[in-house]
Amino acid sequence: MATEFIARGADLELVGIRKEFPGFTAIENLDLKIPAGEFFALLGPSGCGKTTTLRLVAGLEQPTVGQILIGGKDVTDTKAYQRPVNTVFQSYALFPHMTVLENVAFGLRQRKIDEPLVKAQQSLDLVELGHLANRRPAQLSGGQQQRVALARALVNRPSLLLLDEPLGALDLKLRRQMQIELKAIQMEVGLTFLHVTHDQEEAMDMADTVAVMNKGHIEQMGAPEKLYDRPKTVFVSKFLGQSNLFVGKAETPNAATIAIDVAGNKISVPKERAEKHTGTIAIGVRPEKAFFHEEKPNLGADHNLIGPGEIIDIRFTGVSNQYLIEIPNVGNVTVFAQNIGKSPVIELGAQVWVSWKVEHSFGLADLPEVAAEHEPVA
Amino acid sequence: MRKFSFGKYALPVYAVLAFTYLLIPIAFTFVFSFNDYRRSNIAWRGFTFDNWTSVCEAQGVCAAFGTSISIGLISTVIATTLGTMIAIALVRYRFKFRSAVSLLLFLPMATPELVLGAGLAAQFFNFGTEMGFTTIVIAHVMFCLSFVVVTVKARVASLDPALEEAATDLYGSPSQVFWKVTFPLLLPGIMAAALLSFALSFDDFIITYFNSGPTETFPKFVYTAASKGLPGEANVIGIGVFLLAIAIVLMIQIRSSIKAKRLASVK
Question: Which numeric CATH code is attached to B59-160+194-229?
Answer without folding.
Answer: 1.10.3720.10
